[in-house]
C-alpha cells in the first residue's frame, strides 16, 4: 500500500484510509466484503440519483480485499444534528425524502427477488445460517420463501440448542400472516446519522435563508432487495434509535413506517438476533 495513505475520518472501520490528496478511500480488513463494492457499482449504474461513494477499484492482495472508493467530503450528520436550526434540519430531511423516494421507485432487476444487490444472499444477521455452514441464506424468490427462511432459521437455532420449540411454532403459524404483501425494495439497511454525510452548500441557502446541505449515504455493505418494511425495522433498531430524540420522529418523514411489521420483527429479532 502507498505509505502516504492517511487515516480516513469517515466510518467506524479502524482499517480505512484516505489518499494523500483526500480524494480516495481505501477500505480493507475483516469487515470488508465484495458485495459492498458490487452494491456501489449497481447504484452508480442503475440508480444514479441516489448519492453514494463511487467505486474505483476492487481487488485482492495477499488474500485481503481492498475497495478503492471516492472519499466523500463533509461530516457525519450525528456530529452536527443537535446544533442545527429547524430550517436546516428541514432542508436535510427534504433531501433524504428525495433519496428514499428514488430508492422505493427503483425496479428490482429480477422478478420478486429478495437478496443482495450483487444477486447473492440476504446480508443480514437474521439470515446468518444457523445450520452451521457460516454463510448467509438466500437469495429468495417470493416473499413467502423469504419469510419461511427467516422462521426456519429460528427453528434451526432452537433445535441446535435443544430448546422447546413452542416459539418456533408460533412464528411458523403467525409470522407470514403479518409479513405479507410486501414487494422487494431497494434498502440501505443502516440508516443511522453516522452513515449520512452532509456538506454545506454555500452557493444555495435553504428556503428560509439558513444553510443548505448536500447529502451522501455511505456504508452500503448491508444493502439489498428487502421487503418494503425492512428499512424502518432496521432504522428503529433500539441500540441506535432513541425515541426521546427528535431524529426518531424525523426519520418517519423519509422512511416508510409499517408499525405492525416493525413490532413483529422486533419480537423475532430478540429471539434470533445477535
Account of the protein in words:
With 274 residues, the chain is α+β, with helices and mostly antiparallel strands. The protein has two domains: 6-70, Phosphorylase Kinase, domain 1, CATH 3.30.200; 73-274, Aminoglycoside 3'-phosphotransferase, Chain: A, domain 2. Helix content is 32%, strand content 18%. It contains seven helices and twelve strands. It has a five-stranded antiparallel sheet with strand order 1-2-3-5-4, covered by helices on one side. Helix 3 (143-160) runs antiparallel to helix 4 (166-178). The longest helix is centred in the middle third of the chain and has 20 residues, at 86-105.
Shape: globular
Largest sheet: 5 strands, antiparallel
> Briefly, what CATH class of the largest domain?
Alpha Beta
Judged by helices, strands and strand pairing, the structural class is alpha+beta
Helix content: 25-40%
Instruction: Give me the side-by-side strand order of the main sheet.
Output: 1-2-3-5-4
Amino acid at each position: 500500500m502507498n505509505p502516504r495513505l492517511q487515516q480516513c475520518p469517515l466510518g467506524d472501520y479502524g482499517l480505512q484510509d484516505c489518499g494523500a490528496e483526500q480524494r480516495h478511500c481505501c477500505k480493507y480488513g475483516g469487515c470488508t466484503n465484495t458485495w459492498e463494492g458490487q452494491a456501489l457499482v449497481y447504484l452508480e449504474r442503475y440508480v444514479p440519483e441516489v448519492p453514494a461513494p463511487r467505486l474505483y477499484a476492487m481487488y485482492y492482495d495477499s488474500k485481503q480485499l481492498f475497495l478503492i472508493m471516492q472519499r466523500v467530503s463533509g461530516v457525519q450528520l450525528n456530529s452536527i444534528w443537535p446544533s442545527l436550526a429547524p430550517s436546516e434540519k428541514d432542508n436535510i430531511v427534504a433531501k433524504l425524502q428525495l433519496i428514499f423516494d428514488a430508492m422505493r421507485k427503483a425496479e428490482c432487476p429480477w422478478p420478486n427477488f429478495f437478496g443482495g444487490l450483487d444477486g447473492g444472499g440476504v446480508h443480514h444477521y437474521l439470515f446468518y445460517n444457523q445450520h452451521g455452514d457460516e454463510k448467509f441464506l438466500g437469495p429468495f424468490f417470493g416473499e413467502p420463501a423469504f419469510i419461511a427462511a427467516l422462521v426456519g432459521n429460528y427453528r434451526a437455532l432452537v433445535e441446535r440448542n435443544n430448546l422447546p420449540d413452542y416459539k418456533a411454532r408460533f412464528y411458523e403459524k403467525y409470522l407470514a400472516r403479518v409479513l405479507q404483501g410486501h414487494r422487494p425494495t431497494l434498502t440501505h439497511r443502516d440508516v443511522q446519522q453516522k452513515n449520512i454525510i452532509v456538506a454545506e452548500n454555500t452557493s444555495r441557502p435553504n428556503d428560509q435563508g439558513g444553510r443548505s446541505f448536500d447529502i451522501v449515504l455511505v456504508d452500503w455493505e448491508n444493502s439489498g432487495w428487502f421487503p418494503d418494511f425492512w428499512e424502518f425495522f432496521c432504522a428503529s433498531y433500539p441500540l441506535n434509535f432513541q425515541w426521546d430524540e427528535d431524529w426518531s420522529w424525523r426519520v418517519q418523514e423519509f422512511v416508510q413506517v409499517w408499525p405492525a411489521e416493525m413490532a413483529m420483527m422486533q419480537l423475532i429479532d430478540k429471539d434470533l438476533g445477535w
